[in-house]
Amino acid sequence: MKESYRSKTAFALAWVWLAFVAFNVWDLIAHYTGKASLVALAVLAVLTALVYSVALRPATVFTEEGLVGRNPFRTTVLPWASIDDVTVSHSINVHHGDERVLRLWTPMSSARERAKAQRRGAPRQQRGRFNTEPTLSRSEQAAVEAFAGKTHADWVGDQIRERAEAARRRDEQAAPARISWSYDSIAVLVAAVALVVAAIVV
Fold it and tell me: Does this UniProt record's set of keywords contain Transmembrane (predicted)?
């Protein structure tokens, strides 16, 4: 069973952009005016290639086999047992092999999100004589304590660490990482470059 983690905001905005591009491409083709239309198409193609590579493609995927890190131009498959350590700063850094590091593009934690998490984890001071805060159930209180001071990236980093430790307890083989190029991103980029060349030449 796969679990995917990505930036929901970037993903949603990327689809809005694709809808905008689809309408504009139809309009430019329907009302083609020569070089001006071709230049506009080339600009849209370059921006769409960037949006696809940076916002749509990156994902952190958990599979039974291991961790899959989909970055803009490369995909890394890392068996759980080969993960040595996980550190989280603004990104999740997965340490493996001979001091190699896989930096995951998503989820990331901004300084603002980390500050918000720290405030959430700090104990609340009661003001006045009476408690006006709603009383949390036992499960809600446990959830608050589990996430206290943690960002989404911290939580995903903990999940990676736990799965790696579980794999080592099962004595799974620490196989090397498998890295492959992202042919979809490369194809989109090549198409954009071809349109730019066509806009210059025509």
Answer: yes
DSSP tag of 170:
T
The 10 Å CB-count burial string (b at 16+, else e) for 46-70 is eebbebbbbbbbbbbbbeeebbbbb
> In the predicted model, is pLDDT for residue 141 greater than 60?
no
The Cα–Cα gap between 22 and 123 comes to 49
Contact 102, 94 (CB under 8 A): yes
Q: How far apart are CA 138 and CA 26, in angstroms?
A: 55
- Answer whether 167's CB lies under 8 Å from 84's CB: no
Please state, as a whole number, how many other Cβ atoms lie within 10 Å of the Cβ of residue 121: 13
Residue 135 has pLDDT above 70, yes or no: no
Predicted confidence (pLDDT) at residue 151 exceeds the cutoff of 80: yes
- Residue 73 shares a structural domain with residue 166: yes
Q: Which domain holds residue 31?
A: 1-57+182-201
Mean pLDDT of 55-71: 95
| 40 and 90 both lie in a single domain | no
Question: What size, in residues, is the chain?
Answer: 202
Measured between its terminal Cα atoms, the distance across the chain in Å is 50
Rounded CA-CA distance 1/22 in Å is: 33
Task: State the Cα–Cα distance between residues 196 and 87, nearest whole angstrom.
Answer: 41
Cis before 107? omega within 30: yes
> Global pTM?
0.79
